[in-house]
Amino acid sequence: MSTRNEALLAALGERFGGRLQRVESRCGELGFEVALPELLEVCRILRDDFAFEMLVDLCGVDYLTWGKGEWETQDATSSGFSRAAVRATVLPDPAQQFDPRRFAVVYHLLSVSRNYRLRLTVYTGPENPPVVPSVVDIWASANWYEREAFDLYGILFDGHPDLRRILTDYGFIGHPFRKDFPVSGNVEVLYDPEQGRVVYQPVSIEPRTLVPRVIRDDNRYEPDLKSAGPPRG
Length: 233
What we know:
Blueprint: H1 3-16, E1 20-22, E2 31-34, H2 39-48, E3 54-62, E4 103-111, E5 116-123, E6 131-133, H3 142-153, E7 156-158, E8 187-192, E9 197-202, H4 223-228
Parallel strand pairs: 2-5, 6-7
Antiparallel strand pairs: 1-2, 3-4, 4-5, 8-9
C-alpha cells in the first residue's frame, strides 16, 4: 500500500472507528464494509470531509454461489460456467428471506481534488426484496446506477426519484444477474408471420452446462509418447 493510502487509512480509522470494517485487497486498494443503517451518514462524511466528490460507479453483487466449485471431476476444470443451467419451473417465493450476506451494493468513490479512490460495500440483509437507501441526494450520478442494480439484481433503493428498469424490456419478469436466473432466460421474442406481429413465447434453448476447457485423457497427452519423438520408417 502506498504511503498516501496509509495516511488516508489512518484518518478514516480515526474518524469512523469501528463503523468501517476494512476489506483486504491483494493490490493495496482501500475497501471497506459499512453496516446498512450507517450507509447514508458515512457517505455524506466521505463526500464532505474526505473530498470523495464523485461516485464513479455503483453495482450490485449476488453471492449466492460464492466459493462453491461447479465441477469436482477429472474431466473438466473448476473454471467452467454452469450457473442456472437447469431452468427454473416456478418463480421465486416472495415470502422467502435471503441469506443476510447474499446481496451487496458496492460504491466506487473518487476524490478528484486529492486523487484518492475508495470502495465501499454494504450488504442488504435478509429482507425480500432487498432494500438499501438511495444515495442520489449525495451523488447525483447514482441515479442511473441504482436503476441498473434494481433492474439486474432486484435491489430496491429507498428514496430514489424514479426507480424503474433501465436495460431490460417492458414487462420483463425477474432479474437476469441473479445467480438463480436461467442463463438462457425464461422467454424469447420473435416475429410470427401468421399473426403478423412480435410475440413472446417460452424459450426454446435447451438448458446445458458449459465447459470451456475439457481435460482430455488420451494417448496424445501421454508423456512417454511425447518424449519418444516421431516414429522412424
